[in-house]
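Troubleshooting: if your tokenizer reports a length mismatch, compare against these two reference records.
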Amino acid sequence: MENKKKFKPDPDLKLMEQVREVLRYHHYAYRTEQTYCDWIKRFLKFYGMKQHPKDMGAAEVERWLSHLASEGKVAASTQRQALNAIIFLYREVLDIELGEISPMRSKKQRKPPTVLTQNEVQQVLRSMEGTHRLMAQLLYGCGLRLMECIRLRIQDIDFGQGRIFVRCGKGGKDRTVVLPESVRSLLAEHVEKVAELHETDLRAGFGEVYIPDALARKYPNACRETGWQYVFPSKSRSIDPRSGKEMRHHVMESGLQKAVKAAVRNAGIVKRAGCHTMRHSFATHLLENGVNIRLVQELMGHKDVKTTEIYTHVMNKDIDAVKSPLDLL
């Protein structure tokens, strides 16, 4: 069986333009494109922008990665992300195999997640209003990650079956979660308003939304369909950085992050809590209520049940039954 011909970037382009060309050829997400380009720039700046990567090799990469661990104090996952970006540069763009790389490793620290009690979650949600409150309710009620909530499309919500379909979650995996009954009517009203906004865009000659390249080629008119519109669209249209077209993208995640932080503060909660805390709390409360850990694993989209087991360490159910030896004196 013949090997598939490897894509080669335009040699007349500058290095970073070549990187973007290859990333887009392989259909990497725009966020991944930004992240990889940032790491590659940091790698080049570390060596003073004086050497081309093809004139360097494994030794230089090891030194930089070790610097990230020793001086930068980056987390193990961050160091791994930096390594992935550099491997992509050499393997896919420069067509060079780096060979074995053994840098100083960042220490992998597994800390128990911060979890809010059900009463604290209630206080936080009461301190929020409008669309941000609805989004926070979905984070907690469905166990969604921040970007999974932000990127929801109208067609991902099945009001009939009471389900939400999470497309291309972490690791590119799809999963199904339960739509909370308590937000169903609110969400339905919100979706109606989004559909009306889309009709206004269409009448103005716009109405397109970003969809993955393969689907865009197969269904050229899908980008204008209501079902493909984001559930939480931006207030204004903007220029898509890849196509150059004026589209309505989803809202920025920073708005929800700030709203949750402010709500935690206003509720008088001193825990270091944010959007992801809602997801942690969802899993912990399910386990406390006796839901099977395998089902929780499926709802959370965890590849390994060991990831789900971390929530058993912050459950209150068993801890509450234990008396401190000091109280027995």
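Reference record two:
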Amino acid sequence: MKNKLVYIVVIVAVLLITLAVVSGNLNGNKEEQTTDMTKSSFSSKDKKAGGAYAAFKLLPHLFNRNSVQVVTKPFAKTFEKDSELKFRNNAYILVTNKMFTTENDISAMLDYVSRGNELFIATNTIDPLLEKALGFVTVESNSYQHQPKSVTQRYVDAAVPLDTSFRYNGMFSGSYFKVKDTSHIEVLGYNYKNKPNFIRITYHQKGHLYILLNPYTFSNYFVLHQHNVAALETQLSYLDNDAGNIYWDDFYNSQNSAQSGDFSEWQVLMRYPSMRWALWLALILALLYVLVESKRRQRIIPDKPAFNNTSLEFVDAIGQLYYQQHNNYNLAHKMIIHLLEFVRSRYYLNTNVLNDEFIVALSRKSMIAETEIRTLLQMIHQIQLDAELSDAGLQEFYNRIQQFYLNTK
């Protein structure tokens, strides 16, 4: 009985410990999910830490209008179809991590602002096309999850005057502006590095464009943290409370890459300064390579040695053989056979009949005078008739044949 009681106590203790561990893990995961903002969507329907559901629901209370229109198409298409955007006194709010637009979007946005409207953009990475069009420069920096409490966003305005800051343990954005021309650009806020990250641009002295390089101020976790809702009220207080129409953009916050619309991949690459310089440099290097390597490169061809007349070598070899035996007629006969074979193979002449016609043809082809050829053939005829030959006659006959071989063409 006592043993059973001990077993029951041990089992209950193990179950309680297991439940405690599981509960702690669940709470830890829940807290981690609540504070994790590394994947912020900034969507008006997202109720997670990185969503913008709370900010979207507060918009009607910040304006006299009680309705907010949600846009789910590119700005250029919306501006083309919605006639209200072509009038003045409208407010358009765009919150996204990275801003991927097209040239048509930028052109439509600037046209919209020039008509006396207001455009509020909150993003970590602004589109270079917009930078170029409005004449400002941004310095991009990484966003990271910050744990210790520090100033997240600070607002300043000498006209109000306003100087207040907000903080929370969430995502920090370090990007900021380099403002050179202050004639139409006014700094309204600073990031945790005390660098300007919130500006107001007056466009054509009619409309205003607000750019905030800290979209996390619209996130649920930031807005609902302590009294940070005042930060949302501060940055949107510059927009007209009596705006005729209020638009919330839910298109660009869903774009993770450049749109495949009315521009090519080449145009996308060329809009980024660093990529543009890299492409031009690669193109210049390719052209230089083509110009330099276009010259023909080939190994030096060695001079071809002159063709040796093997007939002379053969005659010399045979001559040495028969001359040592003093068989002059046989040696001369071999020389005659070799000579006639040379004429047949070199000039394709029939050597059966050595008449005047043969002499003319051989002289024309070999470029040797007819008199020399005639003398040589007479010596051949005489040797064949006599059937004998002295050493002096053999020497003269050898010299004649050698001269023929040397001078022939």
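Descriptive notes for reference record two:
- The chain has 14 helices and 13 strands.
- The two ends are 132 Å apart (CA to CA).
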